[in-house]
Amino acid sequence: MHVDVTTLGADPTGLRESTDAFREALSRIEAAGGGRLHVPPGDYLVGPLRLCSHLEFEVARGARIRFVQDPDRYPVVFTRWEGVECHAYAPMLFVEGAEDVRISGGGVIDGQGASWWRMYRDYREGRLTRFPFSSVEEIARRNAHLSTKASGGGGRESHFLRPPLLQVKDSRRVVIEGIVLRNSAFWNTHILYSDEVWIRGVSFENPPDAPNTDGLNVDSSRNVRIEDCTFDVGDDCLGLKSGIDEDGRRVGRPTEHVVIRGCIMRRGHGGIVCGSEIAGGVRNVVVTGCIFQDTDRGIRIKSRRGRGGFVENVMIHQIVMERVLVPLVVNLYYRCGIDPGEEEIVSRLASLLPLPVDETTPAVRNISISQVLATGVKSSAGFLLGLPERPIEGLVLSDYRVFMDEEGQEGEPAMAFFPTATRRGGFRGKYLKDAEFRGVRIEGAEEPAFLVEDSCSVRRLD
């Protein structure tokens, strides 16, 4: 079955809402057992949409789908939000419990996130004390238990849980190809509890100051390929996650078997980031042939005591970085997202003394990074910080060339519990085990250009 959405009354001028036409087209295709929904060139204003199985959702080049900005139009659904299963606003474009779905065509899907960002900032900065939406009250009521939980980095919310632009949840054999996804209210695209997802030639676009607008987060999913995509966003470009703290350990689903190839990361807090929500684990990841331009951090792994989980068996090679603050960071003293209860035990989280190892102790092991060229680096040539009770284990860094910017820029390579700020700083490592450095070249950094301490079985071969 082939359905052109304009034949069912969709308005390509964008002056009149087209939600009913889109939903009718999707309903007919689902009843027929599958088909293609074609969105021709034009501007379409719609409410939240749920895609069905055996569907090709084709947004033609020259077409733009814009989502309405009224929070009460988005139903409350059960999902995972910043690593915790809870109730939140339904995604704007939702693929749930589906299989054999393709989203393609070269057009634009626009979340019109500006009003959401404004409300979020007004609330955080005290200009708004109460949200005038019944849906916010419903979410707060259902999530009362979350008010003291930790978060990934920005502080735990429990009521105004902004929707992602696109979420693929509990689905398999999903292809997202050739489209532009922009102006998300929250995360741009969220792949959750899904299998066999292929993302190719997609542009993820958000303003640099848009809050919590990660480009793509792969969350407790497996067999994911991300190729030839471009990221220019307001937070991390591409994240690998698997739940936070006890809730993530309860679910216990890792992100695994991920290939990231030929992508460009422009701006963003981090280029490719593991964590900090890794309670279910991240493993078997290959990153190759990617370019990072003006990101704060290039490759970043972040967690802390209490999070648990692991990052293991990661291979990264053939990477070019330009004008980043720091090319490589592994930080197991990540300080962001502390909940009210944890503030009382910050001294424990920040301790440089070894603590007992248990299920809450994160692990980073078997990381191989090679053929990295970073030019115009501003803050630090690299920063590795494990835990004294569980060092970063089995790291191999080879053909790693860093050329510092002549002026540099003061910045934190790692958001740790203690100061790390530096300008044109050298490569630093602490709490490593069985690490090997081959062909590491640092030019223009403050002395010492390379320093590893409080570690064991470390080999450097020039």
UniProtKB/TrEMBL annotation:
GO terms for molecular function: polygalacturonase activity. Keywords: Glycosidase, Hydrolase. Pfam families: Glyco_hydro_28 (PF00295). One of its GO terms (biological process) is carbohydrate metabolic process. SUPFAM superfamilies: Pectin lyase-like. InterPro entries: GH28_Enzymes, Glyco_hydro_28, PbH1, Pectin_lyas_fold, Pectin_lyase_fold/virulence. Belongs to the glycosyl hydrolase 28 family. This is Glycoside hydrolase family 28. The lineage of its organism: Bacteria, Pseudomonadati, Spirochaetota, Spirochaetia, Winmispirales.
